[in-house]
Amino acid sequence: MTAETSQTLDRGLRVLKLLADTDHGLTVTELSTRLGVNRTVVYRLLATLEQHALVRRDIGGRARVGLGVLRLGRQVHPLVREAALPALRSLAEDIGATAHLTLVDGTEALAVAVVEPTWTDYHVAYRAGFRHPLDRGAAGRAILAARRGEGDGPGYALTHGELEAGASGAAAPLLGVLGIEGSVGVVMLTDSIPDRVGPRVVEAAKEVADALR
């Protein structure tokens, strides 16, 4: 800590990060141990965060991230979209296919940025806001592969006809971006993905990840 920073705010943010990293919540004792502060401090932090709906406590007293975080999170999408657009434009023009950035939203994959190529006679219409299950489509499958730590494969997912008849997709996960699960990919009207497309979406995903760090 320095003279310009707030110890209380720092602890509150650390509480949120700890809660965000667990699915089952944490008790006051567990938070006290991980933060290295006494239980009274933790109670005060939780009470303040609860007032802003950033934390909730269940019947058993375990603290979890509150719904107020979602309101803050909605403002993240425009920032992420802006950072990703240069890489998506380059990808779309290079491959001649619709490029997209997809993020996890609950149990679904949500397209938050889409760029269509300018020089092709036709391409797949794919819109920002489009949702689909994580286990269908290249974008979701790439994200799930990253969750499972499948790092020995090609680094990208390929699918055909899972979301739209006649359309194929290729996507690579965003890696190393704290707090964001997502993928970058393309969708095209073809029965098979050209060999160079998979490595190219991996490159684009890395460019987007670098822009978000």
TrEMBL record:
Membrane recorded as keyword: no
Highest taxon of the lineage: Bacteria
Alphabetical list of SUPFAM superfamilies matching this protein: GAF domain-like, Winged helix' DNA-binding domain
Keyword check for Coiled coil: no
IclR-ED domain span: 68-213
Keywords: DNA-binding, Transcription, Transcription regulation
InterPro entries assigned: ArsR-like_HTH, GAF-like_dom_sf, HTH_MetabolicPath_Reg, Tscrpt_reg_IclR_C, Tscrpt_reg_IclR_N, WH-like_DNA-bd_sf, WH_DNA-bd_sf
Residues of the HTH iclR-type domain: 6-67
Pfam families named in the record: HTH_IclR, IclR_C
Protein name listed in UniProt: Transcriptional regulator
Species whose genome carries this gene: Streptomyces hiroshimensis
